[in-house]
Amino acid sequence: MLKGLGDLGQIMKMQKEMKNIQKKIQKTKIEGQSSDGSVKVTVNGEFSLLDISISEELVRSGDVKKIEKMVSSAVNDAITKAKDFSAEEMKKIAGGMDLGSLFK
Questions:
Q1: Of the chain's two ends, which shows fewer C-beta atoms within 10 Å, N or C?
Q2: Residue 93: CB atoms within 10 Å
Q3: What DSSP string describes 1-19?
């Protein structure tokens, strides 16, 4: 009659682990940068932009198109790293199954 309670305990344990991983992902700060390093950005595990830094040299160049390109490149780099990080963390709870497609 109480045979299924073992499964319930396992589910509750997984839920707790999932919440812990979600908190860790939310709090994690991930840095990305443009290909030439002139722009650096920081995002959290939920892909929210937290910080952006543009080198004075790039700003002084006055090349708006280049600045836009470097900002876009840095943000995309950070988001890619955040997705990879989230996928790796989720893999831990999934017993090694690749859940990366959920984050891409």
A1: N
A2: 18
A3: --TTHHHHHHHHHHHHHHH
Alpha-carbon distance 79 to 38, whole Å? 17
Instruction: Show the tokens assigned to 91.
Output: 């893999």
Q: Per-domain residue ranges for the chain?
A: 35-99
User: Along the 104 residues of the chain, how does pLDDT read in single tens digits?
Assistant: 455 556 777 778 888 888 888 899 989 999 999 999 999 999 998 899 999 999 999 999 999 999 999 999 999 999 999 999 988 888 877 665 555 555 45
**Cα distance between residue 77 and residue 81, in whole Å:** 6
pTM, two decimals, is 0.74
Q: Which strands make up the sheet holding 29-33, listed edge to edge? A: 29-33, 39-44, 49-54
Take residue 49 and report the two structure tokens written for it.
């932009």
Other C-beta atoms lying within 10 Å of the C-beta of residue 62: 8
Tokens of residue 4, six digits: 């299924």
Q: Which two tokens stand for residue 72?
A: 């876009």
